[in-house]
Structures are given as structure tokens and as C-alpha cells.
Amino acid sequence: MAAIIKIENLYKIYPVGKEKVVALGGINLEIPKGQICCILGTSGSGKSTLLNQLAGLEKPTKGRVLIGGVNVSALSEGQLAKFRQKNVGFIFQSYNLLQSYSALENVAMPLMFRGIGKGLRNRRAKVILKQVGLGKRMHHKPAQMSGGQQQRVGIARAFVAKPKIVFADEPTGNLDTKTTKEVMELMVRLCRKNNQTLVLVTHDRELALYADRIITLIDGKVVDDRENRSIAEISEEPSASSETAALPENTSASKALQSSQDDEMAQVVNALLPDDLQEQPKQPGKVVDEKPEEMEEKQEITDQEREDEEKQ
Description:
Helix content is about 40%, strand content about 20%. The protein has helices at about 45-55, 75-85, 105-115, 120-130, 145-160, 175-195, 205-210, 230-235, 240-245, 250-270, 290-310; strands at about 5-15, 20-30, 35-40, 60-65, 70, 90, 165-170, 195-200, 215-220, 220-225.
């Protein structure tokens, strides 16, 4: 799999009085497209400094960072701003929402910077807010929402423009255990759906288990780099029962039992999702068609995306 991020011999050294503090000491890494990668480390390990280098927020003392073949370490501030608008999304621990703006306005903002008209950007923002379970909170301001709801707005804002890479800095640091699980599973699901790369920076080892790969930093150096099977995906797998194993796979009884178990598992998973994400039961014998306005909205979004790609 091709690497979308390349880190080559990266150093960051800060002068402190007459001393020099080595925050990053010669890091070399490659992160493939579509991978959920966790940078794990305690306070002072260099993980936040590394994130700043990846996002182009700081210049390296030595070495470089390539994103999609572009040397972001060498870009000017203006070039970096344009590059981030097009390729990068951010999720912050403190949400960083504009308090005087509604959820809809906060989510639509990245699209405004890309020159997309108000009508289309609001429609796109509504679509993703529904996907993150906030269909009924679109016009609420941050102060009217819980921490978990605010972070869902932050996630929607990061993903609305479908960036190639999303950087998440301690995204669940202010959330309780239950909400943390919901938020992490949501981010994994969105990344899988759009084949996006997620770089997660955290000190929490349990949070790291949601990643495909865990890179551990100590004193600015990589001390461990290992593959991991995301617990978000393990939790979605139905467990095989002894009753199923006892039946030959090609018997009709086995197929009927498996179908029944799949239906039960789908109901359990559906019940664990937020209300706005739960699948509603369909009326038997009826085909649910999309509303004309929804079909028109999807067509407008598709047309606009085609125009955006042609301009690029």
C-alpha cells in the first residue's frame, strides 16, 4: 500500500538557555493511505511536536515531512493554509467550535473556505451531521450541547470536506468512558467508509487499541512500532456458537440458523447506536423510495463535486 505520509530523518531541537532540548531525534516513518495510526506517548515524549510537524504548524530543525509527495516542511504559511484546506482535517481535545455559531454553521465552515456556495455546503453539513447522530441538533450552539455532542460536531467538521488525512489530538480527553467508545467507533467507521488516513495522538493506551498501528515515542524517538487489530472492528464480529459449528455449512438448517443469528446481531448493534443513527424498521411489502428533494440534493452534491475536481 502506497504511503501518503513520509517522515524522513526528522529532528526538532529547542534552545533553552544554554541548553538544547531534543524534542524529536531523527524519526523515519511511513504511513499508508487508509491506515488508522496512533502516535502513543506520555507527556514530554514528543508526540505533540510530531503532530505539529505533520500538520505544518512548526518547521523542523532537520529533515522533512512529505504528504502526498508534497514537502510540507518547505511550504510558506500561505501555501500551507491552502494545502490544509484541501487535504487535511483536524479534531481537537477542546473541540475548538465557534461558540456563536450553530452546529450546522461550524460544520459547513471548511466548505466555505473551499469556495462552495452556501446552499450546497449547508446540505453537505446536514448529511454528515445526520451520520454522526446529530440530525436533531443542527441548529443548537455549542453551549446547548454536551461534551460528546460537541465532539461529534468536531468530527463532522473534520470529515465534511472528505480530506485525505485527519489529525486527531487527544480527541476524547474530555469525555467519559461510554462517550469515548462511541466517538472512537464513529471515527473508525467514517475513515473506513471513505478510505481516509487517521493519525491519532494520545497518551491513552486503551484509545490506541482502536488503531491499525501503534507507534510509541519516548524522548523524541520511536521505541516501538507494531500492527494492531482495531477493537472497533473486533466488536462488530458475531461470535460463532457451538450450535452453528455442529451443523454442516451446506445444510439448509445451518443457513437458516446463521441468518437468524445475523439478524439478532444486527438488532443488538443497532440498539447500541445513538438514536439518530439507528436503522428504523421497514414496513413489510413496502419499498421506501427517496424523497424527490433528497434525490435532487444528492445530484447537486455530485455535480458540485465533479466541478470541484475539474477545477483542481
